[in-house]
């Protein structure tokens, strides 16, 4: 069993920055860690993922503005969000995939609001 605790969401003006954190607890070997986001009435969508070896993948809409990173010793994944736009407003969810069976877990979500 894995428990995820997210932090770092909030209200920021357009052009500003936020950093999200997600710490995973529990005895599990974590492969993939990632962030997804969801707005009302829409499907949850991939934002960024990072493998245990550091390979990253970004949605086209955030590439060049967001940076995902992880600290394997702390089982923590981060999402540095720069040059935020109003369309980045969403609930952001942390997701981890554990070995060896690929079972995945979700965080509770953290609200990010970009508004002047």
Q: Can you describe what's shown?
A:
This protein is mainly β. The protein has strands at residues 3-7, 10-12, 18-25, 29-38, 45-50, 56-58, 66-71, 76-81, 90-99, 104-106, 110-114. Strands 2, 4, 5, 6, 9, 10 and 11 form a seven-stranded mixed sheet that branches. Strands 1-3-8-7 form a four-stranded antiparallel sheet, with no helix packed on it. The model has no long low-confidence stretch (mean pLDDT 96).
Which short descriptors sum up this protein?
mainly beta, 116 residues, 0% helix, seven-stranded mixed beta sheet, four-stranded antiparallel beta sheet
The coarse overall form would be globular
What's the total helix number? 0
Query: Overall pLDDT, averaged?
Result: 96
β content, as a range?
over 45%
Provide the gyration radius in Å.
14 Å
Number of strands: 11
Helical/strand content category: mainly beta
What composes the largest sheet? Answer: 7 strands, mixed
- Cα end-to-end separation: 40 Å
Low-confidence stretches: none
Helical amount among residues, as a percent range? under 10%
Oligomer: single chain
SSE pattern, N- to C-terminal: EEEEEEEEEEE
């Amino acid at each position: 069993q894995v428990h995820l605790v997210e932090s770092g969401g909030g209200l920021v003006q357009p052009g500003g920055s936020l950093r999200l954190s997600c710490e995973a607890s529990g005895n599990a070997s974590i492969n993939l860690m990632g962030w997804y986001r969801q707005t009302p009435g829409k499907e949850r969508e991939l934002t960024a993922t990072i493998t245990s070896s550091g390979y990253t993948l970004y949605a086209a809409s955030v590439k060049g503005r967001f940076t995902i990173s992880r600290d394997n010793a702390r089982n923590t994944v981060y999402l540095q969000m720069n040059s935020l736009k109003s369309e980045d407003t969403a609930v952001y969810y942390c997701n981890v995939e554990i070995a060896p069976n690929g079972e995945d877990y979700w965080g509770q979500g953290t609200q990010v609001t970009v508004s002047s």
